[in-house]
């Protein structure tokens, strides 16, 4: 995979062990549909390098020799996050699970309470899991300034120097330099996403910065300001953290307490109200990758300004982004297009309409189309499955189980299953039996039979599952025992 790459060079950040990276992984990235969907959003995809956006984000803290990150996410994504972090050697992350989405302010508050248990004055470096940064050396220089300002009691954000009249970002008006703090300014005001004319005026004035959404502040400072401006939110999240429970390697926030928290962004809750707001003007190649057009800008391009990923053939094509996950995709005599092909969807759009993809997702949701949120491939804690074909009273799936993992002990009321192993070895529980099923062997599981599938080997187990019966929905699963605490 090509594209601009971050430089993973170790750097020095003052008092690094006091800086806690906080990674917010709650977005669905609907403007990057059909690749990014609720079940597997953009932060889990390798869109620019061989690593996913989540992995790139976590490794920024590793390169700066900071302590392990606190990751705030929903329960459905917990195993994906844990596996992706392990794959790049991030072993000391604390993964905190939100029972419901309540926007960025409660999420950051939860991280602040968790960090404050060890050190109330720990400096939080809050960042989204799905942003790209192309110049990490400049990032760490800006972080150094932000940490110093945070230690002086400020709530600091990074303001990106705008390169175009962007209407998809909020803006920050840059105020006076703060005395004694190199490269740090007061925030004159935060500005909502502007119209085109206003964005042009902001760009020409040279006084406005893009709001990156990254924040640096002491845990104690952030919590003090939150208690001052949003006391109800403060108390709800405090109780949710205090009553949290440990589930394997995860920390589950208390459901009832967290659900009572107001749904509000950190901008509205604290940043726009505090008198301690500061900004570090910077230019380190930041992008929230909020659209296919922004991804095209960040990607490596051919001599005709095309960014191409996957099995693609072009002739007389210019200024376009073409991506496929396997199906041969051919474009001829077109320009300024975004073409994205996945296993179950094809999206073709003019590049100027990149921001409108979310409207299509809303229409799909309104029509009850599963393609709005779910991929053909569905990830589970033990691996994944994907549908191959479906007809009247039958369905065929490909199932891949990771080494040393197992599915729940379960049964079905409406379907029977036939498993054919094509790679690896399966240990199958069938009623009171345990059976080893090897490559090119099969096993039959009648309706109502208690069963479990496990991979005892060191390579992934791949099998073909043929389901038959009057109802084949995923909710026809009665779990008797499960390693992953699912109902």
TrEMBL record:
Supply the EC number(s): 2.7.7.13
Name the reaction it catalyses: alpha-D-mannose 1-phosphate + GTP + H(+) = GDP-alpha-D-mannose + diphosphate
The kind of enzyme this is, by top-level EC class, is transferase
Q: Which InterPro entries match?
A: GMPP_N, Man1P_GuaTrfase/Man6P_Isoase, Man6P_isomerase-2_C, ManC/GMP-like_b-helix, Mannose-6P_isomerase_type2, NTP_transferase_dom, Nucleotide-diphossugar_trans, RmlC-like_jellyroll
Q: Name one GO molecular function term.
A: GTP binding
Question: What keywords were assigned to this record?
Answer: GTP-binding, Nucleotide-binding, Nucleotidyltransferase, Transferase
Q: Which GO terms describe its biological process?
A: GDP-mannose biosynthetic process; polysaccharide biosynthetic process
Q: Which residues form the MannoseP isomerase/GMP-like beta-helix domain?
A: 311-364
Pfam families the record matches = ManC_GMP_beta-helix, MannoseP_isomer, NTP_transferase
- Residues in domain Nucleotidyl transferase? 21-303
Q: Which residue intervals define the domain Mannose-6-phosphate isomerase type II C-terminal in the entry? A: 368-482
User: At the top level of its lineage, which domain of life is listed?
Assistant: Bacteria
User: What is the similarity comment for this entry?
Assistant: Belongs to the mannose-6-phosphate isomerase type 2 family.
What is the name of this protein?
mannose-1-phosphate guanylyltransferase
């Amino acid at each position: 995979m090509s594209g601009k790459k971050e430089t993973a060079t170790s750097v020095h950040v003052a008092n690094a062990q006091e800086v806690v990276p906080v990674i917010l992984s709650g977005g669905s990235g609907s403007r990057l549909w059909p690749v990014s969907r609720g079940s597997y959003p953009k932060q889990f995809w390798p869109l620019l390098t061989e690593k996913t956006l989540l992995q790139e984000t976590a490794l920024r803290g590793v390169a700066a020799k900071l302590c392990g990150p606190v990751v705030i996410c929903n329960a459905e994504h917990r195993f994906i996050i844990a596996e992706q972090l392990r794959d790049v050697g991030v072993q000391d992350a604390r993964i905190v699970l939100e029972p419901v989405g309540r926007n960025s302010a409660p999420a950051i508050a939860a991280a602040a309470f968790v960090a404050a248990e060890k050190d109330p004055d720990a400096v939080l470096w809050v960042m989204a899991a799905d942003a790209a940064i192309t110049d990490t050396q400049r990032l760490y220089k800006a972080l150094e300034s932000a940490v110093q300002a945070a230690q002086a009691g400020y709530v600091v954000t990074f303001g990106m120097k705008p390169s175009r009249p962007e209407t998809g970002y909020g803006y920050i008006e840059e105020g006076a330099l703060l005395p004694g703090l190199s490269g740090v300014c007061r925030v004159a005001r935060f500005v909502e996403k502007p119209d085109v004319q206003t964005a042009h005026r902001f760009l020409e004035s040279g006084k406005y910065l893009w709001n990156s959404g990254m924040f640096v502040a002491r845990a104690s400072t952030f919590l003090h300001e939150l208690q001052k401006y949003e006391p109800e939110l403060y108390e709800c999240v405090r109780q949710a953290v205090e009553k949290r429970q440990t589930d394997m390697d995860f920390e589950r926030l208390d459901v009832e307490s967290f659900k009572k928290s107001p749904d509000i962004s950190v901008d509205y809750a604290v940043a726009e109200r505090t008198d301690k707001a500061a900004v570090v003007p910077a230019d380190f190649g930041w992008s929230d990758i909020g659209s296919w057009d922004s991804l095209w800008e960040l990607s490596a391009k051919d001599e005709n300004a095309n960014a191409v990923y996957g099995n693609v053939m072009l002739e007389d094509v210019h200024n376009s982004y073409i991506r496929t996950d396997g199906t041969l995709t051919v474009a001829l005599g077109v320009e300024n297009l975004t073409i994205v092909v996945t296993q179950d969807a094809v999206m073709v759009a003019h590049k100027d309409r990149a921001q409108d993809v979310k409207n299509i997702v809303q229409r799909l949701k309104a029509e009850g189309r599963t393609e709005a949120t779910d991929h053909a491939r569905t990830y589970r804690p033990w691996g994944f499955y994907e549908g191959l074909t479906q007809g009247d009273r039958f369905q065929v799936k490909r199932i891949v189980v990771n080494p040393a993992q197992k599915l729940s002990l379960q049964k079905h009321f409406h379907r029977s299953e036939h498993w054919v192993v094509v790679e690896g070895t399966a240990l199958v529980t069938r009623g009171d039996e345990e059976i080893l099923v090897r490559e090119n062997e099969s096993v039959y599981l009648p309706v109502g039979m208690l069963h479990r599938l496990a991979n005892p080997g060191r390579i992934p187990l791949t099998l073909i599952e043929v389901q038959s019966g009057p109802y084949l929905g995923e909710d026809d699963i009665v779990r008797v025992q499960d390693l992953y605490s699912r109902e």
